[in-house]
């Protein structure tokens, strides 16, 4: 039996994880559920899964949850940052699903890594901000990192055992690999007339053609910043050089990524676009369990197609690839700026096309210094957020 903590339990990945747990009750137990402020969702999850702990980052939400739980409930409600660290590092915990959205996921995810847990990593922003330190810390603590993000999970599945056993420090060339092909759908605006892009609405941006996801990652898919963040994520997980990592647009999201070997072989992982597949893979690795996912029907899929990304349409992808080349400071700044810009777009304060403008302005002008610790990274993240807010204000 694996005892699990689910960071981001009320979100899309949280729901998929709990669905896989429900289908495999003999293998997994819910130790703790963690969210920010969604009291009603958390209450429903507590009643259904009866975790030992329910943690709400928002203190008012924690108070409301305590009042709403029936007196018969044994779930303990917590709320302070110290209590959250204690939860994820507790000796009873085997596995932590890291699925808080954005930079907010960094501290608890990093605590789980430092404590040597089995960490199922969906929160790509944590790796974008702290990749080098994250992988070094995992090596030192003996934590097992398993990639949940569908592309990275696909790449992982197409890698030889030696790479799977040495994430972050592998030499993929010596394993006969020439390239990783990171696939992306191109999102809802792949063929939209460029003159219309400044006027698209948040709901249109969140209307992903293939995946049902939270709003932040959905906007990132629409701008292809998601693929940029994933490019950086892949760089750290698979220790790649720029020449070893290529982005391919694949609008159907049936192939979740590929690995090209020097003998000409290309290994691809495929499946219906349903996050329960990579989640179940990570939960049971190296075994396999049922995930409740419909088998892929190739006759229904019909055609698979591939395109080269157009940086004119998707400037955020170019910015992220450039930031990855520049290093950890640049990727931390870009991630922070993007979170602020996406939130402003979702609130109707800036245009969709302004997201790339804010990101670029922050990337060129933030004051960067060497990042040696999580505290340094958080300080830079905070500065970049302030800068992004000032850039948004200046846009009018
Ligand atoms: N959805 C998907 O298919 C995929 C997602 N990912 C990654 O997984 C992560 C989660 O995405 P997704 O599930 O779509 O996001 P959602 O928006 O659906 O869920 C976000 C979760 O994070 C919680 N949260 C938000 N802010 C905080 C905070 N400050 N402290 C603690 N918890 C917080 C939310 O709690 P509350 O409800 O209380 O606000 C919620 O549980 C992201 O990093 C995303 O990039 C990666 C691949 C695929
Ligand atoms: C499901 C998942 O992993 C997402 O990150 C997904 O890849 C988003 O789709 P895009 O390929 O459009 O970014
Ligand atoms: Mn992905």
Automatic annotation (TrEMBL):
<feature type="binding site">
    <location>
        <position position="230"/>
    </location>
    <ligand>
        <name>Mn(2+)</name>
    </ligand>
</feature>
<feature type="binding site">
    <location>
        <position position="208"/>
    </location>
    <ligand>
        <name>1-deoxy-D-xylulose 5-phosphate</name>
    </ligand>
</feature>
<dbReference type="GO" id="GO:0030604">
    <property type="term" value="F:1-deoxy-D-xylulose-5-phosphate reductoisomerase activity"/>
</dbReference>
<feature type="binding site">
    <location>
        <position position="10"/>
    </location>
    <ligand>
        <name>NADPH</name>
    </ligand>
</feature>
<feature type="domain" description="DXP reductoisomerase C-terminal">
    <location>
        <begin position="270"/>
        <end position="386"/>
    </location>
</feature>
<protein>
    <recommendedName>
        <fullName>1-deoxy-D-xylulose 5-phosphate reductoisomerase</fullName>
        <ecNumber>1.1.1.267</ecNumber>
    </recommendedName>
</protein>
<comment type="similarity">
    <text>Belongs to the DXR family.</text>
</comment>
<feature type="binding site">
    <location>
        <position position="149"/>
    </location>
    <ligand>
        <name>Mn(2+)</name>
    </ligand>
</feature>
<feature type="binding site">
    <location>
        <position position="230"/>
    </location>
    <ligand>
        <name>1-deoxy-D-xylulose 5-phosphate</name>
    </ligand>
</feature>
<feature type="domain" description="1-deoxy-D-xylulose 5-phosphate reductoisomerase N-terminal">
    <location>
        <begin position="4"/>
        <end position="131"/>
    </location>
</feature>
<dbReference type="InterPro" id="IPR026877">
    <property type="entry name" value="DXPR_C"/>
</dbReference>
<keyword id="KW-0414">Isoprene biosynthesis</keyword>
<feature type="binding site">
    <location>
        <position position="226"/>
    </location>
    <ligand>
        <name>1-deoxy-D-xylulose 5-phosphate</name>
    </ligand>
</feature>
<keyword id="KW-0460">Magnesium</keyword>
<feature type="binding site">
    <location>
        <position position="227"/>
    </location>
    <ligand>
        <name>1-deoxy-D-xylulose 5-phosphate</name>
    </ligand>
</feature>
<feature type="binding site">
    <location>
        <position position="12"/>
    </location>
    <ligand>
        <name>NADPH</name>
    </ligand>
</feature>
<keyword id="KW-0560">Oxidoreductase</keyword>
<feature type="binding site">
    <location>
        <position position="13"/>
    </location>
    <ligand>
        <name>NADPH</name>
    </ligand>
</feature>
<dbReference type="InterPro" id="IPR013644">
    <property type="entry name" value="DXP_reductoisomerase_C"/>
</dbReference>
<feature type="binding site">
    <location>
        <position position="151"/>
    </location>
    <ligand>
        <name>1-deoxy-D-xylulose 5-phosphate</name>
    </ligand>
</feature>
<feature type="domain" description="1-deoxy-D-xylulose 5-phosphate reductoisomerase C-terminal">
    <location>
        <begin position="145"/>
        <end position="238"/>
    </location>
</feature>
<feature type="binding site">
    <location>
        <position position="214"/>
    </location>
    <ligand>
        <name>NADPH</name>
    </ligand>
</feature>
<dbReference type="InterPro" id="IPR036169">
    <property type="entry name" value="DXPR_C_sf"/>
</dbReference>
<feature type="binding site">
    <location>
        <position position="150"/>
    </location>
    <ligand>
        <name>1-deoxy-D-xylulose 5-phosphate</name>
    </ligand>
</feature>
<feature type="binding site">
    <location>
        <position position="185"/>
    </location>
    <ligand>
        <name>1-deoxy-D-xylulose 5-phosphate</name>
    </ligand>
</feature>
<feature type="binding site">
    <location>
        <position position="124"/>
    </location>
    <ligand>
        <name>1-deoxy-D-xylulose 5-phosphate</name>
    </ligand>
</feature>
<dbReference type="InterPro" id="IPR013512">
    <property type="entry name" value="DXP_reductoisomerase_N"/>
</dbReference>
<dbReference type="InterPro" id="IPR036291">
    <property type="entry name" value="NAD(P)-bd_dom_sf"/>
</dbReference>
<dbReference type="Pfam" id="PF08436">
    <property type="entry name" value="DXP_redisom_C"/>
</dbReference>
<dbReference type="Pfam" id="PF13288">
    <property type="entry name" value="DXPR_C"/>
</dbReference>
<keyword id="KW-0464">Manganese</keyword>
<feature type="binding site">
    <location>
        <position position="221"/>
    </location>
    <ligand>
        <name>1-deoxy-D-xylulose 5-phosphate</name>
    </ligand>
</feature>
<dbReference type="Pfam" id="PF02670">
    <property type="entry name" value="DXP_reductoisom"/>
</dbReference>
<feature type="binding site">
    <location>
        <position position="11"/>
    </location>
    <ligand>
        <name>NADPH</name>
    </ligand>
</feature>
<comment type="function">
    <text>Catalyzes the NADPH-dependent rearrangement and reduction of 1-deoxy-D-xylulose-5-phosphate (DXP) to 2-C-methyl-D-erythritol 4-phosphate (MEP).</text>
</comment>
<feature type="binding site">
    <location>
        <position position="125"/>
    </location>
    <ligand>
        <name>NADPH</name>
    </ligand>
</feature>
<dbReference type="InterPro" id="IPR003821">
    <property type="entry name" value="DXP_reductoisomerase"/>
</dbReference>
<keyword id="KW-0479">Metal-binding</keyword>
<comment type="pathway">
    <text>Isoprenoid biosynthesis; isopentenyl diphosphate biosynthesis via DXP pathway; isopentenyl diphosphate from 1-deoxy-D-xylulose 5-phosphate: step 1/6.</text>
</comment>
<feature type="binding site">
    <location>
        <position position="151"/>
    </location>
    <ligand>
        <name>Mn(2+)</name>
    </ligand>
</feature>
<feature type="binding site">
    <location>
        <position position="123"/>
    </location>
    <ligand>
        <name>NADPH</name>
    </ligand>
</feature>
<keyword id="KW-0521">NADP</keyword>
């Amino acid at each position: 039996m694996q005892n699990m903590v689910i960071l981001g339990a009320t979100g899309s990945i949280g729901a998929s994880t709990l669905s896989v747990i429900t289908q495999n009750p003999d293998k997994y137990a819910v130790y703790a559920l963690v969210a920010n402020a969604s009291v009603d969702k958390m209450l429903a999850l507590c009643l259904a899964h009866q975790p030992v702990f329910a943690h709400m980052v928002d203190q008012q939400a924690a108070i409301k949850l305590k009042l709403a739980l029936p007196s018969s409930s044994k779930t303990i409600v917590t709320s302070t940052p110290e209590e959250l660290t204690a939860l994820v590092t507790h000796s009873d915990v085997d596995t932590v699903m890291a699925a808080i959205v954005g930079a907010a996921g960094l501290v608890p995810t990093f605590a789980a890594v430092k404590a040597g847990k089995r960490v199922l990593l969906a929160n790509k922003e944590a790796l974008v901000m702290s990749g080098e330190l994250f992988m070094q810390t995992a090596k030192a603590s003996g934590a097992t990192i398993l990639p949940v993000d569908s592309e990275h999970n696909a790449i992982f599945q197409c890698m030889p055992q030696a790479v799977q056993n040495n994430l972050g420090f592998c030499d993929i060339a010596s394993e006969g690999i020439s390239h990783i092909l990171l696939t992306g759908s191109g999102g809802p605006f792949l063929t939209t007339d460029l003159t219309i892009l400044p006027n698209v609405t948040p709901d249109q941006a969140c209307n992903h053609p293939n995946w049902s996801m939270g709003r932040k990652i959905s906007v990132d898919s629409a701008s292809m910043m998601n693929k940029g963040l994933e490019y950086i994520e892949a760089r750290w997980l698979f220790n790649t050089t720029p020449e070893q990592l290529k982005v391919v647009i694949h609008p159907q999201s049936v192939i979740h990524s590929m690995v090209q070997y020097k003998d000409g072989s290309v290994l691809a992982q495929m499946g219906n676009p349903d996050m329960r597949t990579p989640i179940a893979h990570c939960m049971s690795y190296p075994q396999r369990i049922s995930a409740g996912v419909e088998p892929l029907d190739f006759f229904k899929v019909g055609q698979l197609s591939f395109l080269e990304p157009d940086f004119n349409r998707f400037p955020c992808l170019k910015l992220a690839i450039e930031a990855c080349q520049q290093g950890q400071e640049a990727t931390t700044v870009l991630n922070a700026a993007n979170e602020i810009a996406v939130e402003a777009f979702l609130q109707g304060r800036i245009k969709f096309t302004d997201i790339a403008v804010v990101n670029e302005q922050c990337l060129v002008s933030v004051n960067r210094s060497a990042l040696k610790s999580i505290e340094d990274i958080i300080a830079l993240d905070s500065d970049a957020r302030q800068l992004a807010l000032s850039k948004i204000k200046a846009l009018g």
